[in-house]
Specification:
Length: about 375
């Protein structure tokens, strides 16, 4: 299907942008306060808007970067917007010039926030642009600043595993990829797509999945991709979110990869906001336009409390930060769910807590800490040995 210059924004695209928005609002200050520069790459930027002037990903990103409440405390932020279609790239550049004027302009490089935000519309292919960037860093022996890359193609072409690995290896990079499972699944038996799928996966093992069918095949296509990200790109932690169309069919997985559990935590919190039942999926089919983003659902606090208790049972002095880290890495929950689960355990008498001091060899319990429902990190430890 040949796409127009701009097209209608589906609810799942809105959901994708909300995930991007929630994530960047937390990621930018987390990295930007400690690093002189950070970089955001929108690898398949699009025209910048949808029908009815709804914002595209470059506008979502630049609005967050330029208006962030902590912008003054954050260093330089570079935003590279790569778009392979010339008409869309020109549309994007014109739109951004109009939206963010007055701008200080170089050659297709624009400055905002008194030079602290620099963005560029790069008219070219994602893979060629990234390859050039990685070559430059290698030739000059420099590394890229900590980076977040949003990689949002229409289909499986143009996102070779080799380059994504190169990006993740060369810097503290976190990536959010639209893995187009619907088209990968469709093209699995098409000889003309073999090279594309070899490049996408960075291996030939996907061929073994041809004999599988249905849900299991899609799951295995995703799992193979994730295992390749871990093996080739050194992604320690990954997370995926399923997007479904108006017929409730799986369209794509948003796959997030990072080397740090803090990044995983931020993305988990963002995804939980869009799927507050913990299903990590969004469907245009069940989405209600009358109540677009009202979610009465919430996490299963009892389940999380049970998981925490089972894991830490018997331990006498656990810092709340360690419980958060474990929760983020080992369960579907995020760090912002932990306090409520611990409060449940406290109410049931399954834990007590103490003021604590760090001795160099570990935490020492001091006096009981009486304030109910509070677990300040660095100040208290939790004792799971009472029950
Ligand atoms: C799914 S759309 C991007 C939507 C956009 N990220 C958003 O959320 O608003 C994919 C875009 O990638 C562009 N594109 C296709 N192949 C490309 C390539 N190899 N490199 C960069 N952009 C490409 C298309 O022209 C299209 O505008």
């Amino acid at each position: 299907m040949k796409r127009k210059l701009i097209w209608r924004k589906a609810p799942h695209t809105e959901a994708k942008h909300k995930i991007l928005d929630y994530y960047l609002k937390a990621w930018i200050p987390k990295l930007g306060t400690w690093n002189e520069r950070i970089l955001i790459i929108d690898g398949f930027a699009g025209p910048g808007e949808y029908a009815d002037c709804k914002p595209g990903s470059p506008v979502v990103i630049l609005d967050i970067v330029t208006n962030h409440v902590l912008r003054n405390r954050i260093g330089k932020i570079g935003v590279f917007l790569i778009e392979g279609n010339n008409d869309r790239a020109n549309h994007l550049e014109d739109l951004l010039i109009r939206r963010y004027s007055p701008l200080r302009a170089g050659e297709s490089i624009y400055e905002l926030n008194e030079g602290k935000t620099v963005f560029a519309v790069i008219k070219g292919k994602f893979s060629a642009t990234l390859e050039e960037m990685l070559d430059i860093t290698q030739t000059h022996g420099v590394s890229l600043p900590p980076c977040f890359a949003f990689i949002d193609p229409f289909g499986p072409s143009g996102i070779p595993m080799e380059l994504i690995s190169g990006l993740m290896k060369c810097t503290k990079a976190e990536i959010l990829i639209n893995f187009p499972v619907d088209s990968v699944n469709r093209f699995l038996g098409t000889p003309a797509y073999e090279n594309t799928l070899d490049a996408l996966y960075g291996c030939k093992n996907w061929r073994k999945l041809r004999m599988m069918k249905g849900v299991e095949r899609r799951r295995r296509l995703r799992e193979l991709y994730i295992s390749q990200l871990k093996a080739n790109a050194g992604a320690e932690y990954t997370l995926h979110f399923t997007m479904r169309n108006a017929r409730n069919r799986e369209l794509y997985y948003l796959i997030f990869a990072t080397k740090h559990w803090h990044g995983l935590d931020i993305m988990k919190q963002a995804m939980w906001k869009i799927a507050p039942d913990g299903s990590f999926q969004f469907s245009d089919y069940t989405h209600s336009p009358e109540q677009p983003w009202l979610f009465p659902l919430e996490p299963d606090w009892e389940e999380l409390a049970g998981l925490i208790w089972k894991h830490f049972r018997g331990q006498e002095a656990v810092p709340p930060g360690e419980i958060e880290r474990w929760t983020v890495i080992e369960t579907i929950y995020a760090s912002n769910h932990v306090r409520r689960a611990l409060t449940l355990l406290e109410e049931k008498g399954k834990l007590c807590k103490y003021e604590a001091a760090y001795s160099g060899r570990g935490w020492i319990k001091l006096a009981p800490y009486k304030k109910k429902g509070a677990f300040p990190n660095g100040k208290v430890v939790v004792d799971f040995s009472a029950d």
